[in-house]
Specification:
alpha/beta; 4-stranded antiparallel sheet; 10 helices; 16 strands
Length: about 375
């Protein structure tokens, strides 16, 4: 039900500046719409949005506020282009900011458990440096008060319905927070230059981590069908490292073979961690240039399971090997998949997305060719 707020109400907001050495400065602008009073709610999620008022050439907090009032929605916080943080709804209350959405673990009660933060800028712009700085400071403050499991963009909880925050650099927030992956072997530097590897079934603690992020009951494979591989790789700095990748048991041997070949060829890999280190969100993993395999997700823009959902596809150095170009790739350099490197995968039984006839995906290797 929408609440009618007299226009004069907006002009009568009382501005209160709260300053604390360990917290950002926040301007209080309480609203009486777009939220529901609550008590004792459990907060474990932060959702980052972007808003702009198409009727304005220059985006302002007041312009965004008029838009939210019109639709009877509200975030808990808003950050304008100058980096000023506004508090609209108390954290203890449920703000209407997420809409129809779901977390990576399949839970749909997003508004109930989350804090919403809106960045105010147009869809043709990028967040300002001041907005990024304010967002980082605000998230740090929130993390100091709650046990935060997810920090996600609106597009990640409502794919296909929402695309904000647009033009957003997710590394700005994932540098602050990563889910606990201590049940897996995280990348470490090795002293030798001999290829080392191991393969095993997922332990119960490892399965518990994946059930939070990359796996759900509707996945086309069971956790028992997957294997966790620890393999040596050459980092971008030339050092020998050990990383972790999760694949279908049916391709464990193929995967070990191809990574052994990559290691012997000194092909550099920037990062290799389970997708759970990035909340099961492909966009965040790619933004961090992470090499990974299993992730129970659909093909972008569809409801069809990706080959990654079966654990039979691997993405290598996403930043150096982007998807989307229909042209033949002539790029070379550190971490770039060349035809010679692709041949190592093909010799191990994989097919390369860089040879697709339509939209190419140079980072993508799969057994099926899809």
């Amino acid at each position: 039900m929408r609440t009618f707020i007299p226009a004069l109400f907006i002009a009568l907001f009382i501005t209160v500046t709260v300053s604390h050495a360990a917290t950002p400065t926040i301007v209080s602008k309480p609203v009486s719409f777009g939220y529901k009073a609550a008590t004792d709610r459990v907060i474990d999620t932060v959702i980052v949005h972007a808003t702009y008022n198409p009727g304005l050439k220059k985006q302002t907090f007041e312009g965004a506020l008029r838009l939210w009032k019109q639709y009877a929605v509200s975030p808990h916080y808003a950050i304008d282009p100058s980096g000023t943080i506004y508090s609209l709804v108390s954290e203890k209350n449920i703000a209407y900011h997420a809409g129809v959405s779901a977390l990576p673990n399949g839970e749909t009660n997003v508004n109930t458990r989350s804090i919403g933060i809106e960045l105010i800028y147009s869809n043709k712009e990028t967040p300002s440096a001041a907005q990024y700085a304010a967002l980082q400071s605000l998230i740090k403050t929130i993390e100091g008060k709650y046990s935060i499991k997810y920090i996600l963009g609106h597009d990640q909880i409502a794919p296909g319905r929402k695309v904000d925050p647009w033009n957003f650099d997710y590394t700005k927030i994932t540098s602050l927070f990563k889910p606990a992956t201590t049940e897996f072997i995280e990348p470490v530097t090795l002293s030798g230059t001999i290829f080392q590897s191991s393969v095993g079934m997922l332990t119960l603690p490892q399965q518990a981590v994946m059930k939070q992020y990359s796996y759900r009951a509707s996945c086309p494979v069971s956790l028992e069908d997957l294997r966790v591989l620890n393999v040596s790789y050459v980092g971008f700095d030339g050092a020998t490292r050990q990383g972790t990748i999760i694949v279908n048991a049916s391709i464990a041997d193929k995967t070990l073979a191809v990574f052994k070949s990559l290691f012997e060829q000194k092909f550099p890999i920037n990062s290799m961690m389970p997708i759970d280190a990035y909340q099961g969100i492909d966009a965040i993993s790619m933004a961090n240039d992470n090499t990974s395999a299993f992730n129970c997700r659909a093909v972008a823009g569809s409801s069809v399971f990706s080959e990654h959902a079966y654990g039979t596809a691997i993405d290598i150095n996403p930043k150096e090997n982007p998807a989307g170009s229909a042209m033949l790739k002539a790029k070379t350099g550190k971490g770039v998949v060349t035809p010679a490197i692709a041949r190592l995968f093909k010799d191990a039984g994989f097919k390369w997305g860089g040879e697709w006839t339509s939209k190419k995906d140079y980072q993508h290797f799969s057994v099926s060719g899809k």
